[in-house]
Amino acid sequence: MTDLFESPDSTREEILAAAYRALCRHGYAPLTIEKIGAELDKSTSLVYHHYEGKDDLLLACLEFMLDQYETEFVEAEITDPRGTLEAAFDDFLDPEMPAERHDFIRALVELRGQAPHDERYREQFGRSDRLFEQRFADIIEAGIESGQFRAVDADSVAGMLHTLFSGALINHATAEDERLTALREEIDAYLEARLYA
């Protein structure tokens, strides 16, 4: 999802792109509207014209990313269930991923840290959790139908995969990268034992 802001179509999207870049560069705590404005090719006052503060802007940014994710990925056809599932883990658990993607993961983990104290973040991350779990369930159901996966309770396994995925992202953002290889091997072992036919 790191390319969602490459070609903004409107002033609103330009501001969201600036917020995204500033969040990845500075992190949540030191982020200010001025730092977001520095990423924008227009006046910082334009940010204040559209958003009341940092959190309003970051929540709008999260909502935009989730809307794009839902359109591009959740609704995408699943032609190779096993390949699609493994690609999801490959994408986010690569110890040699580009720095930009790692910054994105770290920024998401920081934003999720706001959810226990702010209902608006809880709502956005609740939506995110539901979207990811539904995508995993859809992949599992397609895999069962194609014979690639065992006949399992798709919702239960999807919940477990989402929990593994979320924990791995937090680990990636906060721990040493060499742990990712061992973690990925354990995820693969789970998939072999529980899911793959």
How does this model look, in words?
By secondary structure, the protein is mostly helical. α1 crosses α4 and α6 (99-112) crosses α8 (154-174). 72% of the residues lie in helices and 0% in strands. The longest helix has 28 residues, at 119-146. The chain is elongated and about 55 Å long.
Segments where pLDDT lies below 50 for 5+ residues?
A: none
**Percentage beta strand:** under 5%
Q: What value does the average pLDDT take? A: 89
Rg over CA atoms, rounded to whole Å, is: 18 Å
Structural class: mainly alpha
Helical residue percent? Answer: over 70%
Succession of helices and strands: HHHHHHHHH
Number of helices: 9
Largest sheet: none
Principal-axes geometry comes out as elongated
Distance between the termini: 30 Å
Q: What's the β-strand tally?
A: 0
Give the topology, please.
Layout: H1 11-26, H2 33-38, H3 45-50, H4 54-74, H5 81-92, H6 99-112, H7 119-146, H8 154-174, H9 178-194
Helix pairs in contact: 1-4, 1-6, 4-7, 5-7, 6-8, 7-8, 8-9
List the keywords:
single chain, 197 residues, mainly alpha, 72% helix
